[in-house]
Amino acid sequence: MNPHANMIIMSSLILGPMITITSSHWVMAWVGLEINMLAIIPLTGQTTTTHEQFEASIKYFLTQAAASSLLLFSIINNVWNTGQFDITQPTNTLSSTMMTAALTMKLGLAPFHYWLPETLQGTTTMMTLILTTWQKLAPLTLLMMINQSLNTSLLVTLSLLSMMIGGWGGLNQTQLRKIMAFSSIAHLGWMTMILTLSTKLTLLTFYTYITLTTTMLLTIKLLETNKMSTAMTSWTKSPMLNATMMLNLMSLAGLPPLTGFMPKWLILQELTKNHMTIIAATSAILSLLSLFFYIRIAYYSTITLPPNMTNYSQQWRHKNQQKPYLPLMIITSSMLTPIMPTFMMIL
Amino acid sequence: MLKIIIPTIMLIPTTTMCKPTQLWYTTLIHSMLISLLSLQLFYPSLQPIMNFSNHNLQQNQTSTPLIILSCWLTPLMILASQNHLSTEPLSRKRTFIITTIILQMLLIMTFSTTDLIMFFVLFEATLIPTLMMITRWGNQMERLNAGTYFLFYTLMGSLPLLVALLSLYSNTNSLSILTMQLSPTMLKNTWTNSMWLLAALTAFMIKMPLYGLHLWLPKAHVEAPIAGSMILAAILLKLGGYGIIRIMSTTNFLSKTPYYPFMILALWGIIMTSLICLRQTDLKSLIAYSPVSHMGLVTAATLTQTEWAYTGAITLMIAHGLTSSLLFCLANTKLRRIHSRTLLLTQNMQLLLPLMGTWWLLASLTNMALPPTINLMGELTIITSLFNWSNTTIIITGLGTLITATYTLHMFSSTQWGELPQHIKIMTPSHTREHLIMTLHILPMMLLMMKPELIWGPLYC
């Protein structure tokens, strides 16, 4: 891409959520979201060789624009009812419900998740990375700031629905980026479950999710696999990365003692403290659905190797590209559970 | 306690850095040294002084035998895996040994922790190395299914366990095993408390396994490599028993009705799985079903919550661990020679491999709980405590013992006696390594026969 255009787009992409996060005025928050959306549309629309890629960016634009306008409407409704634009003041029921709907549409929570799998599939892997991690920052921050006026039962319903859809939807997928989309839906479900009870835990889950998803998508990019069938031969490109991909997948699934278990454990603890035991047990068991497709990827790529390969044979045209920060991320995504009290203290 | 954990962790760099020709010797000798070091944990059993404890890691008579058994089993696993890993490249051999060592480390920490949540995290953590062992180094295509069954059965039970432990934490604000044993809470027989008990116990019942929830066990045991089968049968099943003992000592229900479903399934499972063993054609599957019946006895005993029952449970767990692991090693020697697990393909092995016949005899005798082995001590204590709990259980347990003896004799006579099959052309003689494995299994059993107080758990003080 043209370096000047690239600079403008990248700086707007970073500027948008920064404005949203640091604002206390509703209109500034909305402006930040709009800057972000306008910046990322050219990035998602970069590759338009196939029809699917073209459709992905259009779907993304339409969904985000609709969500932004719904958010603007709920802001105006809030102003009409309470007479002030301050984010930190409580809002009335209608405004907060509409804001919930708009922000969940921006995030990709159920039942507004239909755009997410195709959008993540239709763009490049780096764009998938940005869409799943950076784009979630601004809407989630807004949700956290208005958490005291939100309806707990609505949020719990949405999050249980997200976990179900994230689990069951990913079961039939073979494309890795679509699988990451459904995993994103399920993780966002865990984040919004605990939103009204403890924003600290939402933040912790978000940070853990960013680390795990970034590691996974960077691994996918390095191994140049997009489907499960190409993942089966990824051990010829980098066997060590293959093995750590398995650990990363188990961490995404939330298996102890890896990092992904830590937010789940703390969320379940907070839920049982508030006597929501059945909801806690249900959400724990729903995470087993996503465990199945993570384990399936781990089986195909790492644990079972083709029967005719007992000697290690490397791919003959092997580009040795490395990302120096990837080992650190892998360690962070596997081994953080023993220092859990540190996170409770600093968040 | 760190004297044992740190050397075990340090075995991992040892494995990566030792010379290729010395890989097996080095890991074997070092893990054997660690297991000899762990024997000193028996010392507090002989006196009421507890020397090896701090706030985080503590052993009492319940957990000490299991720690020592898991340390003892690692060199045996390394010994037994040499044959089937000989064709693999060096890095995979190292990875296998590292998986074994990680499993041992997690098991030691599981049995010695003082906090129930830490116990849970480590209990779950043992799943990952075991899954890797089953699905990566198993033999048949069915191992994928076996790994999935293993993982999902265990996790389906243990996630409610996590929620149950967290709700106990929010009620009592402490999950330390030490303080909970001293003040067990009396619970009324309400729906909530019954559900709590169901959630807390199901994970361990699946792990034991209880009869209705046992479908993962034959798959996992049959498809696992020999080291995986050994560690599964000897220790990982006993994790369930240990967990039940810990949970049961923390709560006391005012009426015994919530325990009835588990008790019924356990007792009925003893008979049913013993009968299934009689009908098996696959040798490894036969040996895999026998833990279900023995662990049914252990489950029924631990649910009665008496001193004799706990003693019998721990004794039978140790004895059965050694016996089952020995039987799997014997089946593996047969598998390596004829590459088939069918029971009837090798008959009259006593003629071809007479020394191995001795080990088959000893294994069968201990499996059917011949006096004066420790298997009999455990079973008899359990049968007595169940008789005390309810007189009619003697029918079930007695019948179970009878059928156990029947299928064990059937297995022994099928492999050792009978007509020599015509198709066997080559039968390589027994390796010294194989004799060593069998000796190292039988030796603790014989020695424990002399001083069984070491594994009697809380009865001895």
TrEMBL record, chain A:
One of its GO terms (molecular function) is NADH dehydrogenase (ubiquinone) activity. Residues 23-289 form the NADH:quinone oxidoreductase/Mrp antiporter transmembrane domain. Residues 291-344 form the NADH dehydrogenase subunit 2 C-terminal domain. GO terms for cellular component: mitochondrial inner membrane. GO terms for biological process: mitochondrial electron transport, NADH to ubiquinone. The keyword Metal-binding does not apply. The chain crosses the membrane at residues 57-76, 96-116, 152-172, 179-198, 204-223, 244-266, 278-299, 325-346. InterPro entries: Complex_I_Subunit_2, NADH_DH_su2_C, NADH_UbQ_OxRdtase_chain2, ND/Mrp_TM. It is an enzyme of class 7 (translocase). It comes from the Eukaryota. This is NADH-ubiquinone oxidoreductase chain 2. The gene is ND2.
UniProtKB/TrEMBL annotation, chain B:
GO terms for cellular component: mitochondrial membrane. Residues 114-404 form the NADH:quinone oxidoreductase/Mrp antiporter transmembrane domain. Its EC number is 7.1.1.2. InterPro entries: NADH4_N, NADH_Q_OxRdtase_chainM/4, NADH_UbQ_OxRdtase, ND/Mrp_TM. Keywords: Electron transport, Membrane, Mitochondrion, NAD, Respiratory chain, Translocase, Transmembrane, Transmembrane helix, Transport, Ubiquinone. The chain crosses the membrane at residues 23-43, 150-170, 195-217, 224-247, 259-278, 285-303, 309-330, 351-370, 390-412. Residues 1-110 form the NADH:ubiquinone oxidoreductase chain 4 N-terminal domain. Belongs to the complex I subunit 4 family. Core subunit of the mitochondrial membrane respiratory chain NADH dehydrogenase (Complex I) which catalyzes electron transfer from NADH through the respiratory chain, using ubiquinone as an electron acceptor. Essential for the catalytic activity and assembly of complex I. This is NADH-ubiquinone oxidoreductase chain 4. It comes from Pelodiscus sinensis (Chinese softshell turtle). The gene is ND4.
